[in-house]
Amino acid sequence: MQTFNSMIDLLLHLDKYLGLIVQTYGHFIYPILFLIIFSETGLVVAPFLPGDSLLFVTGTFAAAGGMDINLTLSILIAAAILGDTINYWIGYYTGQRALHCKNPQFLNKKHLDRTHEFYEKYGGKTIIIARFIPVIRTFAPFVAGVGKMNYRRFIVYNMAGGILWVTLLVLAGYFFGNLSFVKRNLTAFIFLIIVLSIMPGVIEYLRHFQTRSSAAE
User: Fold this and answer.
1) Domain boundaries, the chain
2) Is the pLDDT reported for residue 100 higher than 70?
3) pLDDT over 80 at 211, yes or no
4) Residue 150 vs residues 32, 63, 126, 138, 156: alpha-carbon distances, Å
């Protein structure tokens, strides 16, 4: 419970925590952000890390002069693409055992199954769509690797999704995050981003639940 509360506090007060990190570590903020985005997209054990909200807040700090926007975009895009690439190859070489294991030690089986269903429905486009859906974002490249998706096809979707995800959210923070209204209500905006980012997953779950209920009837 304490870990959950700490994570909620981190997500809702990224402006304060990121500001503190920038002040404390200076230019080391770049490798720190790289590691966070890389871990969230590249390690199936870390779907809880902040993604969308972190990118938005990073953009606001870049706009305020705390970070170089071009360097920030380059580093975070590289982290997103590299993370998905590593995740794909992990799934490619080890995923079949995890997918068919009833109780995988390091994976949330429900998240894995949900992503597999999502992938079955949307195919390769899942790699792009999933960028904007927490949890699915982390598991999508892993499932693509498990399914032996053609790597050339995967890397195209991976690069397109990584560039689109990072650029849209960082530039949204860069251009809108320092407007007086947004600055006064930044915590509310972060919460709104979190809610919007999980809505596609909630809608998909409700549709799936409705379909199962109809089939049962």
Assistant:
1) 2-216
2) no
3) no
4) 32, 39, 14, 19, 10
